[in-house]
Model the fold of this input.
Amino acid sequence: FELEITSSAPGFVVASVPYMPGWKAFDQVGNELPVYRAQMALMGSYVPAGKTNLQFEYSPDSYLLGKWVRGLAFIVSAIGFGFVSFQVWDRRRVKG
Done:
């Protein structure tokens, strides 16, 4: 989600979204800003003075780890399937 903020001085913005590790905030240029736990359960970030577009993305490390594990499992399965298929083909060729 995205927030457009206009302020005359630097400040701290609190979004009414539950804080969880994995949230990332980016300014309009694409610089990553730290996301903090605010008011015990919500998330917030510091913003500079002036007009700022803050974009929040949820990208936990566990999701990225899951993508890597899934990709690795696919590769191992494909290699295993290829190996077994070759063994079956080779046995039929020798008997043939």
Q: What stands out?
A: The mean pLDDT is 92.
